[in-house]
Amino acid sequence: MSLDKVYEKVVERNQGEEEFHQAVEEVLESIEPAMEKHPEFADAKVVERLVEPERQIIFRVPWKDDDGEVHVNRGFRVQFNSAIGPYKGGIRFHPSVYIGIIKFLGFEQIFKNSLTGIAMGGGKGGSDFNPKGKSDDEIMRFCQNFMNELYRHIGPDTDVPAGDIGVGGREIGYMYGQYRKIRNRFEGVLTGKTPEWGGSLVRPEATGYGLVYFTQEMLNSNNIDLKGKDVLLSGSGNVAQYALEKCIEQGANVVTLSDSDGTIYDPEGIDEEKKEYVFELKQERRGRIREYAEKYDVEYVEDGKPWGFDADIALPSATQNEIQEEDAQKLTDNDIIAVGEGANMPSTPAAIEIYQQNDILYGPAKACNAGGVAVSGLEMAQNSQRESWTFEEVDKRLHGIMKNIHETCYKTSRKYGDEGNLAMGANVGGFVKVAKAMLDQGVI
Ligand code: NDP
């Protein structure tokens, strides 16, 4: 079956799951050169098998709020592909979550995990639960009830979930506690744990730091320095916070941050002291980014996005499809040099086309944001060995992994005839390894 036909079938069999269609299309469009080089992949119907999750679990999550009222949410875990290792991928709590979002994220995760060089398959989970405005007790009860079902499907050698949007250290703690209680086992079944009880240092920082490391590699290979550049950063959650920290450390000037209510623009740049304020605002008070504008008397655009402001580099780190065609046009009009994706699939296909037509350096999410899952892989290794590595050790390994991922993407793009196309390099680089493993293991 041609790749076009495979895509048509995916759309037909997974109706209404637009984000999943988009993620599949983006990969299938770029793996043609690999299929030509490896006719054995088509013979074994590797792609047809790859686009079908190995297992999809949907479950009920009832929980009680502080007034005693019962609510019912829906939980998901999609175990997409385990050809090169146990399923691995985060859990997202956000009201927009449905099976199409979890499948898009799980599908992307297969290639991302493959690129890290660590033995991890692809999976993803979540719920349409909205953590915003909930009390700590409500969050705890929800997480416990979520784990009351999830525990039977996961395990340190089966499936190892982590955090994502709406799931940070607090939620991982409540879920881990419930798993331990039910299973009576203290084992490395979730990553993103607190270092005192099995977590890895640098895991909270990993995605944001990794994004900046990758972006630096991409710039350096074009003889451009990150230092002194103005950066548009979106989001103000886990990824954005640590991308901000690393940008400051590397001498770049972050001028925007956002949340789902709006965007702040601080042309002087967010320095160390302002960064500490953002950390306290978001990690402790769980407040809104609007408060930053009030405190530092800078511009705030309600419902606005960062992409119209003048800068050199864009690091979208909030959510999928946050850069639409018209946003990409604004970036182009402002002579942006590079886009590095911290969020998963933040650019629409039309936006990516604009980057490519205008020679904007483009680092795709599955390469740029792989640092999070890479350090999750290192957390699994530390758990298995019952060891804890130092911050410096883990950070050094993370940096090495991000450099390797960049090199893999670059070399693959050259080998398959489109030098410098890192999106193609990431897709083909991630794909070939998984496809070969599937061939080796037979039709199962
Ligand atoms: P967080 O929940 O910590 O932060 C998400 C941020 O994005 C918040 O500022 C949030 O604003 C904003 N946001 C979320 N949804 C929307 C929306 N629909 N419109 C506008 N803003 C929105 O999540 P993370 O930082 O962990 O994740 C951000 C992105 O990075 C996601 O795409 C995630 O899949 C990806 N990612 C995360 C990894 C990780 O290790 N955490 C690893 C790899 C990828 P508000 O608070 O108002 O909702």
Please explain how this structure is put together.
The protein has 444 residues and is α/β, with parallel strands linked by helices. The chain folds into 2 domains: 3-186, Rossmann fold (3-Layer(aba) Sandwich); 206-363, NAD(P)-binding Rossmann-like Domain (Rossmann fold). It contains 18 helices and 12 strands. It has helices at 3-13, 18-30, 32-37, 39-43, 46-50, 99-116, 136-150, 169-183, 203-220, 238-249, 272-284, 290-296, 325-333, 349-357, 365-368, 371-385, 391-415, 422-440, and strands at 55-64, 70-81, 87-93, 121-127, 159-162, 230-233, 253-259, 262-265, 299-302, 313-315, 338-340, 361-363. Strands 9-8-7-6-10-11-12 form a 7-stranded mixed β-sheet, with helices on both faces. β11, α14 (349-357) and β12 form a beta-alpha-beta unit. α9 packs across α16 (371-385). The protein is globular. The two termini are 19 Å apart. The model has no long low-confidence stretch (mean pLDDT 98). Residues 163-166, 207, 235-239, 259-261, 317-319, 342-344, 369, 372 line the site of NADPH dihydro-nicotinamide-adenine-dinucleotide phosphate (NDP). The site of NADPH dihydro-nicotinamide-adenine-dinucleotide phosphate has 21 residues, from α10.
